[in-house]
Amino acid sequence: MRRAQRPGTIARMSKLSIPNTFTPERKALFLEVLADTCSPGRAAQAAGIARSTAFYHKTNDLEFAAAWGKAVDQALDAVLEESYRRAVIGVDEPVIWQGAISKDDEGKPLTVKKHSDRLLEVLMKWRYGDQLADKLKVSVEETGLSAEGLLAMPSEDRATLVALLAKYSANRPKQETDDEA
Question: Are 38 and 79 in contact, with CB atoms under 8 Å apart?
Answer without folding.
Answer: yes
